[in-house]
Amino acid sequence: MFVQSEKFLDAHGGIIGDIAVYGQESNPTTHRLCKMNLAIRGIDAKIELGDTFHSDKHKDLKADYILVNPPFNISDWGGDQLKDSPLWRYGIPPTGNANYAWLQLFINKLSPNGTAGIVLANGSMTTNSGNEGEIRKNMIQAGLVDCMVALPSQLFFNTQIPACLWFLARNKSNGKYRDRSNEILFIDARMHGQMVDRKHKVLNDDDILNISDTYHKWRMDKTKYEDIAGFCKSATITEVEANNFVLTPGRYVGTEEIEDDLPAPRPRVFYVYVIACEGGSNYIGHTDDLRRRWQEHKSGKGADWTKTHKPRYIIHHEIFNSREEAVKREKELKTGFGREWLKREIEAGRTRQAGGIPFDDKMTELTEKLAIQFKQSSELEDRIKKNLESIGYKI
Fold first, then answer.
1. CB-count burial class (<10 Å; 0-12, 13-18, 19+) for 172
2. pTM, two decimal places
3. Residues 90, 139: contact at Cβ < 8 Å?
C-alpha cells in the first residue's frame, strides 16, 4: 500500500519526500519484506516490529492518512488483557474478535482532520455479536464513518472471505471538502472485476477509477454526484438508524444484501447454523447450502420456527465433511449444555471463528501465500544485491 501511495503521488505531481511513512507489523517475515520493498523504491519509512495492540511503537502518532489491511476476525489478539484500555472510546470490543478493536485503534491514530481506509470482512458491517453492534452505532453517531464499499469476492490470495472497505473521517466538516456530517456514501462494487484464474479476481484500472471517482465527487461537490441504483447511494444518518445501523451497501443502493461471510456451497460439505430471531430466540439447523437455506428462512419458506419468529441474521455456523457429523452436532447444540456454550461464545464474539475451514483448504491457501512471499523475498534480495554492486559493494 505504501508503494501504491508513492505511485499515486507521482501520478498527481507530488513529491515523495513531502510525506512521512510509519507502520508496524507483528510478523517478522512480513516486516522484513516490507522494509526491503520500501528501501528498493527509495521510500523513507519507519516500520517497526511488534504487536500493535500490546506494544505500540508509535504511541504519540497522529496520522493524516491511514491505510490498513488487518487480519480478519482474529480471536487470539489478547483482548482480555485490554478491557480497560483508553482506546475503547466507542465500546469494549469482544475478546473473541478484533475487528472493532482495529477500527478503534485506527480512529485513535488519526489527526484532527485525518482519514483512514481499512479492509475488513463483510461481517463487520452487520454484526451484533459481543457489543460490536453498539460500537458501530456509536461510531456512526459520532460522524466517523464516511463511506462503505462492498468488494467483489476472491480478491485475496489468502482468504475467500468477501471483504469491504471502511473509509473513516475524523472531521467531515473541516472545510477541506464539503460538509458531510449527516451523510454516509454506500458503494456496491461486488459486480466489478474480472477473473484471472479459477480462484482469483482483480479490479482493473477502470473499476478502480469508477469507485474512486464516485467517492471523490460525492465528497467534494455533491452537484457532480448522483445516486445510481444498484451501485451507489448517499444515505442520511436517519436512514442508517432506520436500518438498525447496518452498513451493508446492498441495503441502501437497492441490490441484494451481502450475507455475513456465508460460504459458497461445495461438494461433500455440510453446515450447522444458528439463526438469531426476533424476541431473543435462536433456531439451529443443518444444510448442504447455507446461502440458499438462509434465503429460504428469510422468505418464510424455511422452518416453522422462523416463519413465526422473524430471522435476523446467522450468528454462527460450523463446517463438516459429512451429513452424519452435521446432524450429530446439531443435536448437541440443541441440548441445554449446547445452548449454554452458544450463549458464552456469542457474548465473547467468538461465534464466527467456530467450525472453520477444512484442513486441506487451509494448507492450500497457506502454501499459496508462502510461495508468493518467498518469490517476492527472492526478487527483492536480487535487486538489493544489484543496487549495492552498482555502488561498489558486493555481497
1. buried
2. 0.69
3. yes
Determine the pLDDT at residue 143.
Answer: 97
User: What are the extents of the domains in the chain?
Assistant: 62-253, 270-353, 359-395
To which CATH superfamily is domain 62-253 assigned?
Vaccinia Virus protein VP39 (3.40.50.150)
Tell me the CA distances in angstroms from 321 to 17, 117, 318, 357, one per residue in order.
54, 38, 11, 10
Q: Residue 74 has which C-alpha cell?
A: 482474529
Which residues does the chain have with pLDDT short of 70?
1-6, 8-9, 11-14, 16, 158-160, 255-261, 347-370, 391
Q: Which pLDDT value is given to residue 358?
A: 40
The CATH code belonging to domain 270-353 is 3.40.1440
**Is 164 within 8 Å of 202 (Cβ atoms)?**
no
Residue/partner pairs of 104-110 with CB below 8 Å, 24 or more apart: 104/135, 105/52, 105/53, 106/66, 106/68, 106/168, 107/139, 107/144, 107/168, 107/170, 109/58, 109/61, 109/62, 109/63, 109/66, 110/62, 110/63, 110/66, 110/168, 110/170
Tell me 198's DSSP state.
Answer: S
